[in-house]
């Protein structure tokens, strides 16, 4: 029996529930050698900014127990080159595309959204308000309720009602449910949970911070329980708001855990660095695990960990 | 850019030989017919630590030589220095182990279409991929001179059979424990002055590659160097292994050493800017 693996994030429908995570698939071309991009739910692009950006100095990564720190700093070609080159290529591959955007100001997010409004074929916009690898920590809009509201509100007004907005939140806050409610109130259709956690490694040879940018974002299986907790808390508070879950997913079992906690879809990030076939592998394993547990569709499993005992 | 790493495959390769060679391990893996797509300068990304490993990232190693004959059909050789937790695990694997690999990855060395005077310069175990390259250059009628350097004798990798592929081999150690006391840059200066070199192929520490680029600057000598930056993915998606590289028009951007390299034109790498924040584009 084949299971219905389709899912929705706001008004966007996807035939499959596994996505790439932004910043972990570059622009998609690099992974196309390893699996057909159209077989997963969507490619979530790296977070794109207005201007081309070189990013942070090297070293940019450090492996940590069951995870890694990265300190890329949003290196990218800028929105115009990105829309001219990367998006058309993805659409030619028949991949669904979620464009992730990042800005330094509320206005930059709105102007990026204005450029996306005119682009046909995009499934949704991920508004990354939680990248930790920026020089000014004040840029982490997702750590400030007013700033988070202002960004999402600006993007919503610019986009109108057409493209679904997925707000990507940081786990580095005291109360993620509060931030989640604020961005939904401001017009987010869905939430991406969670971005990396801010971390640091000291190099014992130099006896200084190892990363060129000193701090980096912690990802990988080490943070999966944090993701499961954040998804569970937000789904409990707002069960109707779809969540794109991410954080250390490397297998179908990990993906199912996030789905049971309340995620409608799951992104694979750091696992793709260790295995570029990870997204398609996770999706296959997830389908098998759902079948074994008697689910007829992915939708039945979303938030199943919250069910009330009926006996 | 479509068709990045178009020969790359994920494979389970059997470790058919694991021998200690000085301070290094020579590991030979059965990769079957895939070996026909491997070129000198390509690298392999190896999953380490087994299924339940806490090491989530692959380790990148230069493919030093390949063989398409023998009992296994196709094998690749990797020379590994067991100095980190991942490479120690790899070197501790017994023959017969099943190893999860992705290969071939990255841009290989460019091979000249006409016979030229080629100088191959290796630092430490960076010499390993140069022996496979030397065989191909020799087959193309090139003159192949090789200079190897390291801090001390135990860190020189120079297998007997590899020496047959080169016209001359000179060894330099900083402590004088093998060959001539000194650095590889000393003889390169003399060879360049004597107009004895058309192309330099180099592999080794970044400081050595940088020093060679300084010697070939303002000359007609092409310097193809295999760079080394720490990598998370090896396939172009993580953006960690970048270094500043100029294009022909002089515009400097951060290129990925995994897919734009590891072999790069030493004249275009902006050695002074490695590890720095680049100025903002306008």
CATH architecture of the largest domain in chain B: 3-Layer(aba) Sandwich
Q: How many separate helices of chain A?
A: 9
Proportion in β-strands of chain A: 15-25%
Mean pLDDT of chain A: 94
User: Would you state the CATH class of chain A?
Assistant: Alpha Beta
**CATH fold type of chain A:** TIM Barrel
Uncertain ranges of chain A: none
Written as H for each helix and E for each strand, in order along the chain, the element string of chain A is: EEEEEEHEHEHEHEEEEEHEHEHHH
Alpha-beta content class of chain A: alpha/beta
Tally of extended strands of chain A?
16
C-alpha-based Rg of chain B, rounded: 18 Å
Choose one word for the global shape of chain A: globular
Please tally the β strands of chain B and state the result.
15
Assign the CATH class of the largest domain in chain B.
Alpha Beta
Largest sheet: spatial strand order of chain A = 3-16-15-10-9-8-7-4
Q: What is the third-level CATH name, the topology of the largest domain in chain B?
A: Rossmann fold
Query: Within the largest sheet of chain B, what's the order of strands?
Result: 10-9-8-7-11-12-15
The DSSP helix count of chain B reads 5
Q: How many structural domains can be distinguished in the coordinates of chain B?
A: 2
Would you tell me the structural class of the helices and strands of chain B? alpha/beta
């Amino acid at each position: 029996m084949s299971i219905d693996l389709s899912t929705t994030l706001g008004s966007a429908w996807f035939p499959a529930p596994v996505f790439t995570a932004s910043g972990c698939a570059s622009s998609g071309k690099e992974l196309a050698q390893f699996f057909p991009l159209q077989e997963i739910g969507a490619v979530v692009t790296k977070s794109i900014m207005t201007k081309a950006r070189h990013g942070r100095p090297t070293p940019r990564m450090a492996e940590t127990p069951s995870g890694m720190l990265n300190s890329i700093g949003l290196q990218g070609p800028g929105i115009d080159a990105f829309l001219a080159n990367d998006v058309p290529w993805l659409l030619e591959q028949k991949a669904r595309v979620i464009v992730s955007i990042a800005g330094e100001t509320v206005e930059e997010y709105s102007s990026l959204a204005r450029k996306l409004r005119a682009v046909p074929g995009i499934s949704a916009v991920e508004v990354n308000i939680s990248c930790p690898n920026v020089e000014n920590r004040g840029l982490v809009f997702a750590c400030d309720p007013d700033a988070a509201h202002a960004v999402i509100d600006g993007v919503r007004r610019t986009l109108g009602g057409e493209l679904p907005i997925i707000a990507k939140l940081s786990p580095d806050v005291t109360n993620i449910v509060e931030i989640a409610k604020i961005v939904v109130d401001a017009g987010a259709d869905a939430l991406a949970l969670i971005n990396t956690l801010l971390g640091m490694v000291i190099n014992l040879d130099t006896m200084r911070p190892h990363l060129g940018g000193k701090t980096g974002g912690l990802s990988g299986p080490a943070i999966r329980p944090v993701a499961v907790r954040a998804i569970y808390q937000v789904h409990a508070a707002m069960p109707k708001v779809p969540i794109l879950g991410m954080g250390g997913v490397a297998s179908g079992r990990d993906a199912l855990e996030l789905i049971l906690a309340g995620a409608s879809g799951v992104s694979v990030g750091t696992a793709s660095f260790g295995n570029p076939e990870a997204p398609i592998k996770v999706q296959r394993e997830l389908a098998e695990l759902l079948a074994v547990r008697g689910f007829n569709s992915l939708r039945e499993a979303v938030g199943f960990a919250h069910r009330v005992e009926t006996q | 850019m479509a068709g990045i790493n178009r020969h790359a495959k994920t494979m389970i390769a059997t470790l058919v030989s694991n021998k200690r060679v000085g301070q290094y391990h020579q590991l030979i893996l059965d990769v079957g017919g895939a070996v026909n797509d491997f070129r000198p300068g390509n690298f392999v990304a190896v999953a380490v630590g087994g299924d339940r490993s806490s090491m989530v990232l692959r380790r990148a190693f230069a493919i030093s030589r390949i063989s398409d004959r023998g009992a296994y059909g196709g094998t690749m050789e990797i020379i590994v220095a067991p100095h980190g937790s991942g490479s120690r695990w790899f070197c501790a694997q017994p023959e017969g182990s099943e190893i999860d690999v992705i290969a071939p990855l990255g841009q290989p060395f460019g091979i000249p279409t006409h016979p030229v005077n080629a100088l191959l310069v290796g630092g430490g175990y960076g010499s390993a991929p140069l022996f496979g390259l030397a065989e191909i250059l020799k087959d193309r009628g090139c003159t192949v001179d090789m200079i190897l350097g390291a801090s001390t004798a135990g860190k020189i990798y120079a297998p007997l059979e590899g020496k047959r592929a080169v016209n001359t081999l000179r060894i330099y150690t900083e402590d004088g424990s093998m060959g001539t006391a000194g650095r590889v840059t000393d003889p390169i200066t003399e060879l360049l002055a004597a107009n004895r070199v058309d192309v330099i192929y180099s592999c080794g520490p970044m400081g050595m590659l940088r020093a060679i680029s300084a010697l070939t600057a303002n000359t007609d000598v092409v310097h193809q160097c295999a760079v080394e930056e720490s990598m998370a993915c090896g396939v172009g998606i993580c953006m960690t292994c970048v270094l500043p590289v100029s294009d022909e028009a002089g515009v400097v951007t951060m290129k990925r050493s995994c897919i734009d390299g590891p072999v790069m034109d030493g004249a275009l790498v902006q050695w002074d800017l490695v590890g720095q924040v680049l100025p903002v584009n306008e």
